TrEMBL record:
PROSITE patterns: PRO_ENDOPEP_SER (PS00708)
InterPro entries: AB_hydrolase_Est10, AB_hydrolase_fold, Hydrolase_4, Pept_S9_AS
Protein name, as recorded: Serine aminopeptidase S33 domain-containing protein
An example Gene Ontology biological process: proteolysis
All residue ranges annotated as the Serine aminopeptidase S33 domain in the record: 42-122
UniProt superkingdom: Bacteria
Keywords: Hydrolase
Listed GO MF terms: carboxylic ester hydrolase activity; serine-type endopeptidase activity
Record flagged with keyword Hydrolase: yes
Length: 129
């Protein structure tokens, strides 16, 4: 069971939705890093602009009690979260995407292969030279 925050616009109806996946290392759903919460800010912005957003705590962070996992577990976690979004009554299941940062960017690409009908994939990973 993953602790999460699911936000969606206040108007009635179904919305496009995105899942935000964090990078490597234990992070909460807000992506708290050096007193900055980038996933909270991105999620708030997207929700205010008509997009539902699901943000998860990483394994063993906050109230999430999943055992630490390997990369294949992170992919399975992402696919389960996408399935949740696609089945939610406030989400247009044909308009679900994923945003991944760092290692989450790799998971986002792998999720696109596992769930080929994703509407959008964003790999927000700056490669190190």
């Amino acid at each position: 069971m993953f602790s999460s925050t699911f936000t969606y616009p206040e108007r009635e109806g179904q919305y496009p939705a995105v899942l935000i996946i964090s990078g490597s290392g234990p992070q909460d759903r807000d992506g708290n890093l050096f007193f900055h919460d980038p996933y909270l800010i991105i999620g708030d912005y997207l929700t205010r602009h008509g997009i539902a957003v699901l943000r998860l705590d990483d394994r063993n962070v906050g109230e999430t009690v999943e055992a630490p996992g390997a990369k294949v577990d992170y992919l399975a976690d992402a696919v389960r979260a996408i399935e949740f979004l696609k089945g939610h009554e406030n989400v247009d299941g044909n308009k679900v995407g994923i945003i991944g940062h760092s290692q989450g960017g790799l998971v986002a690409i792998e999720a696109a292969a596992a769930v080929p009908d994703l509407a959008a994939v964003v790999n927000a990973w700056i490669a190190h030279c």
